[in-house]
Design a protein that fits this description.
The complex is a heterodimer of chains A (330) and B (296). With 330 residues, chain A is mainly α. In chain A, helix 2 runs antiparallel to helix 3, helix 3 packs antiparallel against helix 6 and helix 5 packs parallel to helix 7. Chain A starts with a helix and ends with a helix. The model of chain A has no long low-confidence stretch (mean pLDDT 95). By secondary structure, chain B is mostly helical. Chain B is 59% helix and 0% strand. Chain B is built from twelve helices and no strands. Chain B is globular. The N terminus of chain B is likely disordered. The chains are: A mainly alpha (330), B mainly alpha (296). Chains A and B meet through helix 2, helix 3, helix 6, helix 11 and helix 12 of A and helix 3, helix 4, helix 5, helix 8 and helix 9 of B.
């Protein structure tokens, strides 16, 4: 008996070593890991955390924009905004599906979100106060998301990378529509221009913080880069993003609320003024303007929908029972 | 799905319905009619609806607009993510139909879709009471959608034969979309009615709440009679038989009775609305009215 256990432990260790060797080769070839492949527990855990957080961000991120669907100031803008928020639900769906391939159910992820156990992008805990916020969210928040996400299309985990390809295509539409909203406002009445500048002022710093803490304070980044999940460091991506915004804000005829933005000729990188990382941590820890509101809205939608999901499940079960009886009788 | 080109660039390209599109963003599935195309035709004087046809388009447009406004509220609040997407799609379709009808109607009075949506007062709206009804729970929304989509399907199916080529073109696009809305709501009626005891109780109650507003949809008046005789509009009463038969089939399969409740008198087509419309408009119009004359 004891020798049998020993034997099976040895077999497992051999399988593990074989799996690790395969995994290492795939990563070194910059190729893709698929759901049935062996993968280190840490890799699985990191991906599951990252993908589910990303999915939650899409779902919670629907709220600040959905807040303006009913008040959109023209029917064309209303249609675009509806389509955009709907896209975000779709992104959430692909991402939950990608995360499910790692072995956790969507129900479980949703329960974790509602219980406050899972995180989502902190930026959605800020309020969308005016119509111009629809522009600033599209231009800055989706713009930052694209900078982050384009390299993720090459992430080593197949289902994640493939989901990101589609998401990035739609996100670039979103960013363009945000830019277009701001452009129209910036060229509109003085009140509209003021509204646009105010929104850019409020969303600028939080969008820079979307790239995560500075590199010297980002403990997980190194491992993620070694696993080919992450391709560029937080600061590298943030700097690129600032460079793009500097160009685009000129076309808008607006300004960035940062007097220290400059191109460093030596490092060939864009630099920005200091960011309030204490605020970032506060919001991340639940003390942002809308944390409680966002979770409560999600919880309510989920709870109010429970009877509907139960009905659909009960109906499906009855139908398949009927079908089975029919086949049995035949 | 997202119209990206500006009105100006369309005007420059001179692209009209059925004319070869110059820009990739002009291409729609099946080269379908877009609200922007109608607005362009109207603004360039290529088409101008007669007063009667405009009044009629206003009714259809207002029904679709108010329904879209109601349905849009579900986005981010639906029972499942799939339903956020589905209800969002239906809302978008309805909004598209509304924009087309209103763009066309506005041609009679030199007004844009936005002038009509944002700067009319409550008595100037022509929506039926049914679409103004609150979303309620998911069952109420489904019951309302079930009635609307079966009604709209029969209406648009016949309106494709209209002698007014713009109305028939809008209907030809809309009828395909509304067919999906029928399917969506019928599938849910079955699931809710035959799912659990609770869901059955809720959908039964929902139909009782919604059914008083069914009759108004099928009332004829001088305008519809006049337009029907001219081959422009569909007489609402002529839709009732098919509506009853087709909804009846689904209700029978769902083991539900047609609710025996008294009909409400309606009045939306004359500008007499439910208590709900004022709130809907207050929310929908607030920003546009804060900045009259502004472009967005």
């Amino acid at each position: 008996m004891a020798s049998q256990i020993l034997q099976s432990q040895q077999d497992e260790a051999a399988l593990e070593a074989e799996g690790q060797a395969y995994f290492d080769r795939i990563i070194s070839e910059d190729s893709r890991i698929e759901p049935r492949d062996w993968m280190p527990a840490g890799y699985r855990k990191t991906l599951l955390r990252q993908i589910s957080q990303h999915a939650h961000s899409e779902i919670i991120g629907m709220q600040p924009e959905a807040n303006w669907i009913s008040r959109a100031p023209s029917l064309k803008r209303k249609a675009i905004l509806m389509a955009k928020v709907q896209d975000e639900a779709g992104h959430g769906l692909y991402l939950y599906s990608a995360a499910e391939t790692l072995g956790q159910s969507r129900d479980q992820m949703m329960d974790d979100l509602i219980a406050g156990k899972a995180r989502y992008s902190s930026i959605f805990n800020y309020p969308a106060l005016t119509w111009a916020d629809m522009g600033a969210i599209g231009w800055l928040v989706d713009g930052a998301a694209i900078c982050n996400q384009v390299p993720l299309c090459r992430a080593s985990y197949g289902p994640y990378g493939r989901a990101m390809v589609r998401i990035c295509k739609e996100e670039s539409f979103h960013q363009r529509q945000g830019f277009e909203i701001l452009l129209e406002l910036a060229n509109g009445t003085p009140e509209q221009k003021q509204m646009a500048q105010d929104a850019v002022n409020r969303w600028y710093a939080p969008s820079l913080m979307m790239f995560g803490p500075p590199d010297d304070d980002s403990p997980n980044s190194k491992q993620s880069m070694a696993w080919n999940i992450k391709r560029f460091s937080n600061d590298e991506l943030r700097s690129r993003f600032v460079g793009m915004m500097v160009e685009q804000v000129r076309i808008l005829g607006l300004t960035l609320p940062d007097s220290e933005v400059r191109f460093n000729e030596e490092t060939r990188k864009w630099e920005h003024g200091p960011l309030d990382w204490d605020e970032f941590k506060e919001v991340l820890d639940g003390r942002g303007p809308c944390n409680a509101q966002r979770l409560e809205r999600r919880r309510k939608a989920h709870d109010n929908g429970a009877w509907v999901r139960e009905a659909a499940a009960a109906y499906a079960e009855k139908q398949s029972r009927k079908q089975a009886e029919k086949e049995l009788a035949a | 799905m997202i119209p990206t080109d500006s009105h100006d660039s369309q005007a420059r390209s001179g692209a009209l319905v059925g004319v070869g599109p110059e820009s990739a963003t002009r291409i729609t599935p099946g080269n379908a009619l877009r609200p922007e195309d109608i607005a362009l035709e109207v603004s360039t004087g290529l088409v101008k609806p007669a007063e009667d046809a405009a009044e009629y388009a206003l009714r259809l447009g207002d029904d679709a607009l108010i329904l879209a406004q109601r349905l849009g509220h579900w986005i981010s609040r639906a029972p499942e993510l799939e339903e956020d997407v589905a209800l969002g799609n239906i809302a978008l379709d309805q909004l598209g139909h509304a924009r087309s009808f209103l763009s066309y109607a506005g041609g009679a009075w030199g007004k844009s879709e936005d002038d009509l949506a944002y700067f009319r007062r409550e008595p100037e709206f022509r929506s039926a009471h049914l679409v103004e009804q609150p979303n309620g729970d998911f069952a109420v929304t489904i019951a309302r959608q079930f009635v609307v989509s079966y009604y709209q399907f029969e209406l648009y199916r016949r309106l494709t034969e209209s002698k007014d080529s713009t109305l028939s073109a809008i209907a030809a696009k809309a009828v395909k979309e509304v067919d999906y809305h029928r399917d969506h709501s019928a599938q849910w009626v079955l699931r809710l009615a035959l799912g659990t005891e609770e869901s059955r109780r809720r959908i039964q109650h929902a139909f009782k709440l919604i059914w008083p507003y069914v009759d108004e949809l099928f009332l004829d008046d001088e305008l519809t009679t006049r337009l029907a005789e001219a081959g422009v509009a569909v007489e609402p009463s002529s839709l009732r038989g098919d509506f009853d038969r087709l909804t009846g089939e689904v209700l029978a399969e769902a083991e539900l009775e047609v609710p025996q409740v008294p009909a409400a008198p309606g009045g939306g087509r004359r500008g007499r609305h439910s208590e709900h419309l004022g709130y809907i408009l207050a929310e929908m119009q607030v920003l546009a009215r804060e900045h009259p004359g502004a472009k967005w």
